[in-house]
Amino acid sequence: MGDEEEKPATDALPADANETIYVKNLNEGVKIDVLKKSLEALFSTYGPVLSVTAHSNLRMRGQAFIAFDNKEAAAKAIKEVVGFPLYGKPMQLAFAKTKSDAVVAKLNGGEESEASKKHKEARLEQKKRTRRGNEHRRRELAEKIAAKRAAAGETDGAAVVPAHKKQAIPSMPDEYLPPNKILFIHNVPEAVMRDDLDGLFRQYPGLIDVRVIPGRNVAFVEFTDSASSAVARDGLNNYNFGGSTEKLRITFAK
Known about the structure:
single chain, alpha+beta, Alpha-Beta Plaits, 2 domains, 4-stranded antiparallel sheet, about 35% helix
């Protein structure tokens, strides 16, 4: 017994650990296909991603589900990604309450297995029951009905303002956003990797992390405080990597 080698201690998984994680507070202005690709690229660094589920309807807007290959990868992703500002909004993460279809299929021999079919049927039935009493669902239906009535000229005495006459609310240009310890890097050349950006920003004190969103030509760079990020922003804005026609445009994250 005394010669038996001790196994290294590992962090115990929470009681509610699940292979699927729930993400909310996502930027609702980003197209769903772009958002899903960005989420997959970001979370795949923690382990194999089986599926990314996100919808544009009112009830699910700004939310997503990421299904991992194992619970350990999901737990690590929650621990390290929570608060990360994807497209300017800090993500909020938690374990999902149920397993995703992709996880159940993997554990039970595919989508056509009896267990997978029963899981999907139960999930859809639960979804129907939930939607009947869901406030967002009722609001969505009310908006659709109001839009149809407005199109037919039924206004209940209220004046209908044509869409082209509605005054748009101007948004603040990125260049004038208030200081933030996280920088948003635009126009990142395709050939530039995370290590390239890390080396570039490493010359400024206080660098914590660099995250690149593949295929979107953007990245996020985090410093210890806004004063440090401001120095890096001023020093590297319009920086040009050799051989690239694009210059980096650096703003504070929203």
